[in-house]
Amino acid sequence: MSRLKASIAALKAANRKALVPYIVAGDPDRDTTIALMHQLVRDGSDVIELGMPFSDPSSDGAIIQLGAERALRQGSGLNTVFDIVAEFRKTNAETPIVLMGYLNPLEIMGYGTFVKRAADAGVDGLLIVDLPVSEAQSLLALTRPLDLDMIFLVAPTTTESRLSSICENSSGYIYYVSLKGVTGAAISDTGEIGKRVTALRQRTDLPIIVGFGIKDTNSAKAMAAVSDGVIVGSALVQKIGELTDSGKRDEASIAASTKLIADIRQALDA
Amino acid sequence: MSEIETVVAGTVPATIASTGQDQFSGPDVHGHFGQYGGVFVGETLMAAVEELDQVYRKLSKDPAFWQAFDHDMKHYVGRPSPLYFAERLSKKFGGAKIVLKREDLNHTGAHKINNTIGQALLAKHMGKPRIIAETGAGQHGVASATVAARLGLECHVYMGAEDVQRQSANVYRMKLMGANVIPVTSGSRTLKDALNEALRDWATNVDNTYYIIGTVAGPHPYPMLVRDFQAIIGREARAQSLQEYGRLPDALVACVGGGSNAIGLFHPFLRDSEVAIYGVEAGGDGVETGRHAAPLSAGKPGVLHGNRTYVMSDANGQIMETHSVSAGLDYPGVGPEHAWLKDIGRANYVSVTDTEALDAFRMLCRLEGIIPALESAHGLAYACKLAATMRPDQFIVVNLSGRGDKDIHTVAKIDGITV
Ligand SMILES: Cc1ncc(COP(=O)(O)O)c(C=O)c1O
User: Fold this and answer.
1) Phi/psi of residue A90, each to 5°?
2) Is the pLDDT of residue B12 over 50?
């Protein structure tokens, strides 16, 4: 069984909500990203979404774009991403890692090389924001034999006809986008999200994890109550940005920057 | 369709080597031109893009839609634009006749209005009260503000902070027409970043907002519908050539930023295999220096802003910053149909440097009394080189995509003059 499937099965067995933090690979630098990943595991994360920095992140808000820019200034690219994952795997064999990013770097590297290097490094899933199912068939043909899960987004605007093809092609989990907008915006209507997630359940046995706009324990609890877990991105990346501002990289500062995740874990388990 | 169309009806277009099907009727239903094009956007926008495709497919089969379009083209834009023989310029090079398709004479001063009129009809049909647009040189922003004012729609224009500086006159024009101009300070602060910001706005306000993309880029159906609106340029030029010269031109030349004025001129001639086609990219300091905006000349296939096309990326797949004296050509991608036309060899893509474009700009001012846009001056510069290699009985149609009023500050600054 893949790491992601094992982790999801364990959550289900324990009747626990998934906590999935998102950070940008190479923000503030390679070594600190690895330290942050280990810290996030200690904080109670179930899966780590590792952002592949891209110069033109048009589905992201300002906070994540700034995170990507910090990483790019350090020279972070796909080589750094794979290097970070491989290094993390030396001491963590369990926590699933999902790479999240945009398609152009994969196009330039070549899908075949990308997928092989990702699998070799110890990556478990891919989420390519600007790659809808309809254009994803050639990548899916390469990821399936390697047991790399492909995670797709479902948005409030997703139509019925799209839902079936998304559910058919997804594995790992479904990422439900809580709002119309970009990462970092504010959630307005929890009730509506609950309804949409319930409707989605009729179509898939995969866990449905909600992301976009979860910024504190309250929003995390509210979203987890209507789904199988939460993804926390901008609020965390904002905190990690402070490491660049302060120049600090010590253990205490790193732990302080991910405290939100520890707090959310506590709130979800309470 | 238009009056011009009726004039050409009956002339049988020559075809490219037969394949049993017409290869130029693309894109396919998924928006692909060969391996290029398609739809590469976040899930939030997928429904909006699919809806636009359905609406456009339906409306574009409705003659009344095209009648409304042609009516505005004639009475509001001032079409058809003349085909003007630049005699003194041609003489200087001693070769083929250089003939200018005068898109600079359109209302608002560039070809951009052809597209915004068409898309405004779509926005109106779809009942969207709010319009957004991205702009580089400001011409598309102005053309969007124009149609929004005319239809009483709210209009927000995203413009790179850098471009807000270098195109201040256009910023003011947009404001005069009631548009809200939003300077974009993320990334490289130019056109590509304005596009990112517009996509973000669209995802956020997708229910009430129509996004007027200004060129043949973006996800399908934009490259198709923008082309269809701009193709009025080529339809007119084709009919005018037949009328005035009794035959088709030997060559077509147009500058390529995103590629809308170029595809507009080229498309109605694609089946005329005897007509040579040249798209001219911005060579900046020279393609060999790396400081340019010439993805077809020096880029690789990739994915940017919703479609697969030639893109200027570095070895890590990051989008590179571009350089051009012309804000409207300062873009690292290009419309997917051009990528495909390059690969199949139907069109040639070349580049000219900032310096060459500036020389052509000055030459047209002095020899013909026409101040061209710096974008258009790129096409002109190449046409002059090409003309010199051709015979006097041949003729080249150059798309003079816009007028240069917006650029006089840029040129004056280069000349060390403050106006
Ligand atoms: C006058 C003029 N020509 C050309 C362009 C380039 O755009 P496109 O390649 O889509 O025609 C612009 C863009 O701003 C323009 O203003």
Assistant:
1) -60, -30
2) no
